Amino acid sequence: MEINLVEFNTDIGKTKPENFVHAETACPFCDVKHLTGIIETEGDIIFLRNKYNVIGGADQFVLIEGRECSTDMPDYPREKMRRVIRMGVRQWKNLLASGKYEEVLFFKNYGLMSGGTLRHPHMQLVGFPRLKSELLFDEAELSGIVIDERDGVQFNISNCPRVGFGELNVVCQSGGSLDRLADYLQVGVHWAMNHFSRKCTSYNIFFYRRGEKIFAKVMPRYATSPYFVGYNIHFLPNNVARIADEIRQLYSDALSAT
User: Fold this and answer.
1) What is the DSSP letter of 74?
2) Quick count: other Cβ atoms within 10 Å of Cβ 236?
3) N or C: which end of the chain has fewer CB within 10 A?
4) What is the pLDDT of residue 199?
5) Thinking of the domain 10-134, which architecture would CATH place it in?
6) Which has the closest alpha carbon to 206: 170, 251, 152, 253?
7) Is 115:8 a contact under the CB 8 Å cutoff?
8) Cα–Cα distances in Å, from 102 out to 2, 77, 128?
9) What is the mean pLDDT of the chain?
10) Cα–Cα distance between 157 and 144 in angstroms, integer?
11) What is the pLDDT of residues 105-155, one digit of tens each?
């Protein structure tokens, strides 16, 4: 079986701060004056090297989305959300263009079930000198029933999910609007955290690229199905068309806004 297998340094991993369960743990991203490895700032958005480089052979980076610890993407003003995505995509492209990495992963963990450790809203970028790009994703996982489509960007719900339930995708064609990408992501995250399930408190955003095309997947996180973990069986929910209609109705103003 062909897979990407990379080393994880458990010794470093044990030292990482965590404040989802241990809420009393101080947030290092709030203590801006003591941050190190800063590469670029834009207002209160900070791009820096990750202090806890747990992935062997890779370079890890963090994009701190702002100074507020208790907020997140659904709460951002539209322009703030757009600035975060524009800066994240710019840093992603800069790392790819550096020539140092065969692949750069760009993603967001939010909530205990997402694999995240810190409540403060942030995204991560990880540069791999060696990684088999063709094994990272299948474009079919990012296609589905179209919810909305404008400015060279499509918003859909997966009908070939990567894992299972409630997966929303944004597909930005070459030359498509990054601002529209940001708008769709904000709608997707708000839906995941407020309408997908009353029990959903976590999500991921995964970014992918193929040529000049950018893909992003909003994935609500919950206890992963044993069918998937044990046997690689993906579930296709029977309500994806209903969810597409629901999102169109709930977010009609946000989807049509310029």
Assistant:
1) G
2) 11
3) N
4) 85
5) 2-Layer Sandwich (3.30)
6) 170
7) no
8) 17, 35, 6
9) 96
10) 5
11) 999 999 999 999 999 999 999 999 999 999 999 999 999 999 999 999 999
Domain 140-256 has CATH 3.40.640.10: no
Tokens of 54: 């747990």
Tokens (6 digits) for 41: 């700032």
Compute the distance between CA of residue 91 and CA of residue 79 in angstroms, rounded to an integer: 18
Structure tokens at 43: 């207002």
Q: How many CB atoms lie within 10 A of CB 140?
A: 12
User: Are the C-beta atoms of residues 158 and 128 closer than 8 Å to each other?
Assistant: no
Q: Domain-by-domain residue ranges, the chain?
A: 10-134, 140-256
Counted residue by residue, the chain has a size of: 258
**Amino acid identity for residue 193 in this structure:** M
Alpha-helical runs (H) found in the chain:
10-13, 78-97, 178-191, 226-231, 240-250, 252-256
Q: Computed over its alpha carbons, how large is the radius of gyration of the chain?
A: 18
* Rounded Cα gap, residues 40 and 61, in angstroms: 11
Distance CA 53, CA 212 (A): 29
Strand segments, DSSP code E, in the chain are 38-42, 45-49, 59-64, 103-110, 122-128, 144-150, 153-158, 168-172, 202-210, 213-221
DSSP β-bridge partners for residue 127: 59, 104
Cα separation, 76 vs 183, in Å, equals: 11
In the numeric block, the tokens 């930005």 are attached to: 172
Partner residues linked to 217 by β-bridges: 169, 206
- The per-residue pLDDT for 64 is 98
Q: What are the φ/ψ torsions at residue 253 (nearest 5 degrees)? A: -65, -45
Helix axes 178-191, 78-97, angle to 10 degrees: 120
Do domains 10-134 and 140-256 share one topology? The answer is yes
Q: Which amino acid is at 249?
A: Q
